[in-house]
Design a protein that fits this description.
This protein has 208 residues and is an alpha+beta fold. Helices cover 31% and strands 36% of the residues. The protein has one domain. Keywords: Membrane, Transmembrane, Transmembrane helix.
Length: 208
């Protein structure tokens, strides 16, 4: 009996830990996930460095360049740099302890920024397709690297895009697309039309 109680307690504990992650990974009915991308706009100004991302729970590591990059939506990712002359990818890929490599390696240059993997969920009819945050490297000094978010580009299903500037590094700008406004108005118009139709039916029946 005692063993069953212990097993039950352990099971409940495990479920309490894993359930929030599972539910966070599920897309709600009628909603869609807007994929979030990043790109470092001035990375080519630093040709003597290799830039990498490492995150929890993933990726273990990934080399990045001027192209857009993304990662698992529940991950939190940091950006690192290392001089090309000090970088050995074979050594890194064979390292079973990536966390220690990025934390304790004296050649690693750590940035001040942490990135999220997902923008947000929106209504399935929302034309917003993806969001891309543009990052700027302000400086690389010794073992530290300063990176800022400069702007975010929203792309829509019709091929159009919209740019928003970051006024606060901790607040991601929201899109303001005409299609979104039309969608919101549509949800207002439908109930109004329904009410008008009901009133007309009631009045017409009253005068018959």
């Amino acid at each position: 009996m005692k063993n069953k109680l212990v097993i039950s307690v352990i099971s409940i504990f495990i479920l309490s830990i894993t359930s929030p992650v599972v539910f966070a990974d599920v897309i709600e009915p009628g909603m869609k996930e807007v994929k979030l991308y990043y790109t470092i706009s001035n990375i080519n100004k630093y040709p003597d460095y290799i830039f990498l991302i490492h995150g929890t729970p993933s990726p273990s590591y990934e080399i990045i360049n001027s192209s857009e990059f993304s990662f698992y939506k529940l991950s939190t990712v940091s950006i690192y740099a290392i001089k090309k002359s000090n970088f050995n990818e074979t050594e890194l890929s064979s390292n079973a302890h990536f966390y220690n490599y990025f934390k304790n390696n004296p050649d690693i240059i750590r940035s001040n920024i942490k990135l999220d993997g997902s923008y947000k969920q929106v209504n399935i009819n929302d034309p917003l397709e993806k969001a891309c945050v543009l990052l700027d490297i302000n400086s690389i000094n010794g073992s530290t690297m300063e990176i800022n978010k400069s702007k975010i580009i929203f792309t829509y299903t019709d091929g159009t895009s919209q740019e928003k500037i970051f006024k606060d590094q901790n607040i991601t700008p929201e899109p303001s697309n005409k299609s979104n406004l039309a969608l919101e108005l549509w949800y207002i118009v439908i109930p109004v039309l329904a009410i008008i139709a009901i009133v007309i039916i009631i009045i017409s029946r009253k005068f018959k």
